Amino acid sequence: MNGPVRVAVAAVVATAVGLTLAVSGGFAWDDTSSQSGPPVPAGGIDPAALATANDVDATVAALQARLRDQPSDARSWATLGLAYVEQARVSGDPSLYPRAAGVLDRSLTEQPDDNALALAGQAALASARHRFGAALRRSEQALAINPYELGALAVRVDALTELGRYRTARTALAQADRRRPSVQIFARYSYAYELRGRTGEAARLLERAVTGSSAPADRAYLLSLLADLHRKAGQLAASGRALTQALEADPESLAASASRARLAVARGDLGEAARRWRELVERAPLPEYVLALGELYAATDRPAQARRQFDVLEATAQLARGNGVDTGLETARYQADHGEPAAALESARTAWRKAPSIWAADALAWALHRKGRDEPALRRAREATRLGTPDPLLWTHRGAIEASLGRDVPAATHLRRGLTADPGLSPWQRDAAEKVLVEVVR
Amino acid sequence: MMRASRKALLRTALVLGAAAVAVLAPASAASAHPLGNFTVNHYTGLLVGTDQADIEHVVDLAEIPTAQLGNRIDDLDRLADDQCTNVTDSLQLAVGGDPVELQLAAASAVASQGQAGLDVTRVTCQLRGEYEPLGDRTTVTLAEDFTGGQIGWREITARGDSTTLDASDVPTDSISDRLATYPTDLLDSPLDVRSASLTVSPGGPAGELEGAGAPDASSAGTPDGLGAADWMTEKVAALLDNGGAWWLVLILALAIVAGAAHALLPGHGKTLMAFYLADGQARSVRAALRVGLTVTAAHTTSVFVLGIVLAAGATIAPAPVFATLTAISGVIVCWLGVGLIRRARRVQAHDSAHVHAHSHGHDDGHGHDHSHGHDHSHKHSHGPGRGSLAALGIAGGVVPSPSALILLLVGVALGKTWLGALVVLAFGVGMAATLTGVGLAAADVVARVQGWMPTRRTGWARLARLTVSYGGAAGVCAVGVGLVLRSAFTI
Predict the structure, then answer these.
(1) How far separated are the first and last CA of chain B, in Å rounded?
(2) Is A406 on the interface with B (CB under 8 A)?
(3) pLDDT for B280-290, tens place per residue?
(4) Tens digit of pLDDT for each residue in B424-467?
(5) Given pLDDT bands bounded at 50, 70 and 90, which one contains residue A296?
(6) What is the maximal distance between C-alpha atoms in chain A?
């Protein structure tokens, strides 16, 4: 192409990009903005499919090479799809999702029938993108073909849990454990126990899962979950040890770094906590991390710096709205506490409609409370706490709503329960809850 | 002057593009960052000279990292300085094992519209490091050491400038076009190259950085454009900014020359024209002029229509329009080529009939002199009529020349629409002049070749003549098909 053509193309393309997109109504890559945090636990990579590899990156490279030679190998395409989802989960790099989707489609093109592995891959991908309805459907299709497909078994449990169908999830978990007892299933059992407040069992199961896991990134992830459990139980030293191990296994682990920041808060070292959150936010500005840093600034009298983090969350919310996807629970929580309660209510309602989990119930309760609608808020807050989950915000929110309704006694009980649930609770949230508690007790 | 005009041109291009986007943005979101909304992507281009290295480093920040910049985005110059200072600190260049101190030579930042009304940022840093003249097979290493593991693309390329890279573990060309377009092959993992190791010897052709002379392309999708911009078009665009009658004459003269030069480039149907005019034996100046006028008219009209539509910010995408027009042009050329083949067949049929008829009377098969044959073909071959001459002109002019289009758009942007229009007209005149001139000259050559050919109606002479007329016709058809195919790929 000669010079002037390129010049004109520069002009024309600048225009054309806007134009074509305007005409087509814009396109949105499925990316992180549809997520409220790091992708959900263990994407369910099939260890049989990934053979003995303990390094997803190496597996990916091997599969890519193999598929260049043998592009009609449906099973390798499906395995590569699962591996991309796994890489995305570990690295937080969302550009892998469209790739994973393409690869899984390719596998289904090569083998449209009885391709349980590709369907399981699609289920894992949907789950990672927080599309739990689709994840559930896909995993059930995969299980109809192969009832022993581990990835599908695991994703089905995740999807049911995130959709708030806890009883069915429990049954699915027991079934999965009978069919394919494995690390993936232990980790999910652990989460099921944790949700119901049985943290001792949860920690024991996680330890078993850690022992059984070979991939460093997986190990780091499971150890971070274990560290969280230790911290919530007040065992700060044990938490620190688990995190040291986690970061030895995978120095890049986001989950471990986040847990380390929360541990710093638990130890009362807010300076270190701020440093660690800042580092994380630089690396991966996930809403969860940005919110934590913003609230830390807000709690330590640095309103301007807090504002800057909150502006980033505004941008995240704007992106999500622009993409027409739900803004996620972190965004709803941010909007309720630091932004527009009306927007928070809208976000929370969308999230609740899509996946009525206890977390969505809590977000909805809190947004309703901020809008002054405490009666319906309390109904949702009760739903949010119905499993007895030891999460601080579930309880402080319920307590604060009860306080607004003048029910001082349960309010005090629930506020205290929330405040003791996690020493790593965001200092801003802790201050807010303590203030309400002081008023209730007085 | 050169540099300033480039900038003016680019600015205009961007203003026009941005205006269109701004008009339409409320209706929809702009392009999402292909690598996700919170990636920070890095590209490093290394140019190893004999005693100094130039480095271009591009940082592409998607929506969320740009939002993280907060109000620093308001002062792009300072932002560029800060970012590039960081880059300077985190790049480690070593020649023959000795670290080379890098100096920041230039820094620039561009913000452009990303998704959902948010900005994205592109920072470009130019660094330079000097060292003792290279010896043979010197090891040169470059490593990036950016704090934290920011998610994103990381790419390094390396080239030599008066040096030769004996070995290099990085490519010479960026596969993302310096973070402008990210490849989407399902079997490629996003690039994560953080170091390069080369073996370099002095001596070799002069080289330049991949992005040399190119403007900062925004990740919203402006490709590198002005790298090798035609200086003629550039001059005209620069002159448009000035005033006065003197200028007007100069501008129009230059526009004619630019048009003439543009038409010299391949793909304007000059070959077609030559064959058509020659084979039809209609190589009269009048026919050629008619074609020339049609070229000018067709070209000016298509540039005007496209220019007006674009300037009005209408919702069309120019790239498919170009392709469609090219396809139309190709179809016309095909049609003309088929016409040529049919004509050649008629001539041949006539010839055969003659050979047959004469073989009865003359044993030696001789007899028809040149003028006789000429007369025959004149009577029976239906040389190019007005219709096909017009079609020829339209085929040559219907695809608007991007150079002319940009001149028009620059004129519009400068508030001198009439001047832009005049320039486009002059451009068309220049094109027509070249096309007719070249066409006539070539037609003459073809006719001469035909004239030299033996006129016997049998054996190799006949074969040669057939080859020329069919070959020409087939060539024309091939050009037409080629045009259609090319546009089909573009669409």
Answers:
(1) 37
(2) no
(3) 555 567 777 77
(4) 888 888 888 887 787 777 777 767 776 776 666 666 767 776 77
(5) very high
(6) 80
Between CA A85 and CA A126 the distance in angstroms is 10
Q: Which of residues 236-255 of A touch B (CB under 8 A)?
A: 252
A349's CB contacts (< 8 A; 6+ apart) are: A364, A367
DSSP letters of A107-169? Answer: HHHH--SS-HHHHHHHHHHHHHTT-HHHHHHHHHHHHHH-TT-HHHHHHHHHHHHHTT-HHHH
SS3 B316: coil
Listed in sequence order, the residues at least 6 apart from A17 whose beta carbon sits closer than 8 Å to its beta carbon are B17, B21, B30, B31, B220, B221, B222
Q: Which residues of A touch B35 (CB under 8 A)?
A: 93-95
A22 and B27 within 8 Å at the Cβ level: the answer is yes
Rounded to the nearest 5°, which phi and psi values hold at B418?
-60, -40
- Residue A122 CA to residue A82 CA, distance in Å, equals 8
Task: Please give the residue of chain A at the shortest CA–CA distance from B306.
Answer: A12
Whole-structure pTM value: 0.60
Q: What is the pLDDT of residue B348?
A: 64
User: Does any CB of chain B come closer than 8 Å to the CB of residue A11?
Assistant: yes
The count of CB pairs under 8 A between chains A and B is 236
What does the pLDDT read at residue A29?
28
What mean pLDDT is predicted for residues A390-413? 96
Cβ atoms of B193 and B155 within 8 Å: the answer is yes
**A317 to chain B: closest CA residue:** B116
What are the backbone dihedrals phi and psi of residue B414, each rounded to the nearest 5 degrees, phi first?
-85, 0
> Which value does ipTM take for this structure?
0.71
Residues A10, B225: C-beta atoms closer than 8 Å: yes
What is the token pair recorded at A106?
């390719």
Q: Which residues of B touch A86 (CB under 8 A)?
A: none
Q: What percent of chain A has pLDDT over 90?
A: 63
The arithmetic mean of pLDDT across residues A27-38, rounded, is: 30
Sort out which chain B residues have CB atoms less than 8 A from A67's CB and list them. 187
Q: Which residues of A touch B12 (CB under 8 A)?
A: 11
Residues A400/A423, Cβ–Cβ less than 8 Å = no
Q: For B80, how many CA atoms within 13 A lie in the half-sphere containing its CB?
A: 20
Contacts of A323 in chain B (CB under 8 A): 29, 32, 115-116
pLDDT of residue A333 exceeding 80: yes
| Minimum distance, in Å, between the CA of residue A122 and any CA atom of chain B | 15
Whether the per-residue pLDDT at B225 is higher than 50: the answer is no
Contact at CB, B68 and A103, closer than 8 angstroms: no
Mutate to test the interface with B, among A69, A319, A325, A327 (most CBs of B within 10 A): A319
Q: What is the pLDDT of residues A179-197, one digit of tens each?
A: 998 888 888 999 999 999 9
pLDDT score at B359: 38
Interchain CB distance below 8 Å, A106 and B28? no
Q: What is the pLDDT of residues A264-287, one digit of tens each?
A: 999 999 999 999 999 999 888 888
* Nearest in space to A421 (alpha carbons), one of A232, A268, A260: A232
